[in-house]
Amino acid sequence: MSGGAERNADLKALIRTIPDFPKPGIQFRDITTLLLDPGGFATVVERMAAMVDGPIDAIAGVEARGFIFGAALARELGSGLVLVRKRGKLPGKTLTEDYALEYGSDSLEMHHDAIPQGARILLIDDLLATGGTAHAAVRLLRGAGASVGQSLFVIDLPDLGGAARLREAGVSVEALVEFEGD
Fold it and tell me: Where in this chain does the record put each Phosphoribosyltransferase domain (predicted)?
């Protein structure tokens, strides 16, 4: 985690934990309480902007909460925003990446012409758990010809292995806060 837990304790305190949602045993990390706090939300964007490593051409926000942070960060950095969505949500011609879930499969899509070859893309989402969705987004973006070397998250659940999975794919991972044991 970048910046250390102490520096971001203020943000962690704004994230509500809802036990047993969406099923028993899950500790849901709810960012809506963070978004309700204007200073907290602004601080997330400022701190994420400071974590960006090198120049980027665009930010890829993963549906749906990645759009929130991706859009705010894109404005802060003066870059474009690529929407990475669930299947069937984008009009026009799209590129698709299927991926496995613990209970089945899903797909991500982006417009086929969203990024030029070689574009440097920063991947953004609110939470990193097992990394399945983020890894699929990286494959989708790279399949379109993008260079994806960095990802940023508000929350990492390190015990679920998503950060290690992305690092194995050659993507650096940084998060503002971590919640152990989830």
Answer: 49-147
Residue 1 pLDDT: 47
Given 63, 65, 139, 142, the catalytic residue: 65
- 97 as an active site residue: the answer is no
Q: Tens of pLDDT along 89-118?
A: 999 999 999 998 767 899 999 999 999 999
- Decide if 24 is inside a domain: no
In a domain, 146, yes or no: yes
Answer yes or no: 102 catalytic: yes
Of the listed 29, 76, 102, 178, which one is catalytic? Answer: 102
Q: For residue 135, what is the domain's CATH number? A: 3.40.50.2020
Question: Backbone phi, then psi, for 30, in 5-degree steps?
Answer: -95, 115
Residue ranges making up the domain that contains 154: 53-178
pLDDT above 80: residue 19:
yes
Q: In 10 A of CB 155, how many CB atoms?
A: 22
182, 80, 28, 60: which is closest to 133 by C-alpha?
60
Number of domains in the chain: 1
CB 126 within 8 A of CB 71: no
